[in-house]
Structure formats: C-alpha cells, structure tokens
Amino acid sequence: MIYKSPLSLLEGFIFAHMRIDVVSILPQLMQSWFADSIMKRAIDKSLVEIHFHDPRDYTKDKHKKVDDYQFGGGAGMVMMVEPLALLLDELKAKRKYDAIIYMTPDGIPFKQQIANRFSQFENIAIVCGHYKGIDQRIRDHYITHEISIGDYVLSGGELAAAVVSDAIIRLIPGVLNDGTSALTDSFQDGLLAPPVYTRPAEYNGWKVPEILTSGNLKGIDDWRHQQAVERTKQRRPDILGDE
Ligand code: 6GU
Q1: Rounded Cα distance, 137 and 31, in Å
Q2: 159 CB under 6 A from ligand 1?
Q3: Which domains does the chain have, with CATH numbers?
Q4: Nearest-angstrom CA–CA distance, 21 and 100
Q5: Residue 126 Cα, ligand 1 centroid: separation in angstroms?
Q6: How far apart are CA 98 and CA 81, in angstroms?
C-alpha cells in the first residue's frame, strides 16, 4: 500500500465541529490567516469557529499591565499569572477542553501525527506567549500540551498558533474540497510526497514522466511510491518509517 491513510480519522467525524479559543495579546497577528482561502471557507461552512481572547481584558492592574520582571532577575518580561488564570478559568467554566495548548519553543516538536490527533478534538484552547514566556504556574495548572513548531525562536506564539491551527483545520472532514487530498500529503505515511505534474504533457521540450499518462493505475501507484521513498531517503532520512 502506498498511501496508508488514517481513514479512521474521517469515520464518525463527518459532522464534526471544532471550536478554537486563542489567547493572545495581539490577535490581529493571527486573524488575517483566517480571513481568506481554505481557513475562511472552513469557518463559513461552520466546520470550525475561532474566538480570540485578550489577557489585557482580565488584568486588575489600572495600566492594563500583563507582564512583569522575572523573579531571580534576568533580561526579558514574563506574562503574569493572574490575567491568564482568570481568562482560562472563564473559558474552562463554559466548556470542557480536549487540549489547552501553550505555544513555546521549548515544547514538543509539532508533527503531522499530532495534527491528526488534534483534528478529532472539539474544543481546543491555544495560549500564545510573548516576551520571555508565561509564568510557569500557568503551565503547571492549566496547560495540557506544550508545542513548538521548530528549532528557532519567534517573537510571539501567534505565528506558531496559526501554523498549528491551519494544520489541524485542513484535516477536518469537509474543509478540503477533495476529502482524500489530505491523506496523500507529505508525512501522512511517513514519506514525503512524490512529484506532481499537470497539463501540458510537454512544455518547452520538458516531458511529464510517461507512466503518469499511461492509464496504468498500478504502475502509477508504484512509481509514486518509489519516488516518495527516493525523495525521503535523500531529503529526510530521519523520518523514514515514521507514522
Ligand atoms: Cl510555538 N513560539 C515561539 N515564540 N517561538 C517558536 C515556537 C513557538 N516554535 C518555534 N519557535
């Protein structure tokens, strides 16, 4: 089998509806991503709803302060415990969360398999940190998953939260026009995707591999698999066999 599909992901979730609550002091950083294209369509079709919550609305400080110096000294501000705790208490009182995710470069690396699992959840909250991060007590008492999107540091969690949300939302049945499309993505079977071509069959003397226009479905399957294996060996030997 070439594209071993996580079909179980689809079964029983045809009418799934997901709610994502994003906790962020800069929601506008994320909002544009959901205002267009596939993400917008998912929202318009009511397959997903995204709500933004600003910790500044939960601070008791008269200057609306949400960050402070870290105990023990050191450069950089830390997001204070109280505004986040009040905000998350309010969310948790309204619904049960399958995951309360904190976006942080010291989290576990985000992978397709994690996106697959999260795409089955109904209620997800994502906390975006800024500055040096958030008070550890929030991580200890509210956060269920800590996720990083790679080994580099971003200036805030919003970009990472948009990445994770996109990867999850496109897997929700009905979001992509062709429901099988997501199953043939890179990483879904522990392999990178094979090359793809479209018309014309010849351009500038550059020909599409003959097998693809042969009508030989078994041959095409085998060719794609072999190309996927070859690419993965060359580019990402570290993921060979991942699933
Ligand atoms: Cl999740 N947040 C930030 N601020 N930087 C990151 C990251 C997350 N993942 C990689 N770098």
Answers
A1: 28
A2: no
A3: 2-169 (3.40.1280.10), 186-240 (1.10.1270.20)
A4: 9
A5: 13
A6: 22
Q: Which amino acid is at 8?
A: S
For the beta carbon of residue 31, count every other beta carbon within 10 angstroms: 15
| Other beta carbons less than 10 A from residue 242's beta carbon | 14
By most ligand atoms within 8 Å of CB, the mutation choice from 79, 104, 131, 152 for ligand 1 is 104
**Interacting residues of 69 by C-beta distance below 8 A, sequence separation 6+:** 77, 78
How do residues 155-196 score in pLDDT, each as one tens digit? 999 999 999 999 999 999 999 988 788 888 989 889 999 999
Q: What is the pLDDT of residues 26-46, one digit of tens each?
A: 999 999 899 989 999 999 999
Which residues are CB-neighbours of 195 under 8 A, at least 6 positions away?
227, 231
For the whole prediction, is pTM greater than 0.70?
yes
Quick check: 185 and 193 in contact, CB under 8 A? yes
Q: Going by C-beta distance under 8 Å and a sequence separation of 6 or more, which residues neighbour residue 4?
A: 188, 189, 243
Most informative mutation of 22, 23, 103, 127 for ligand 1 (most atoms within 8 A of CB): 103
Q: Which residues contact 241 (CB under 8 A, 6 or more apart)?
A: 190
Ligand 1 contacts CB of residue 15 (under 6 A): no
Question: Which tokens hold the place of 219?
Answer: 């041959």
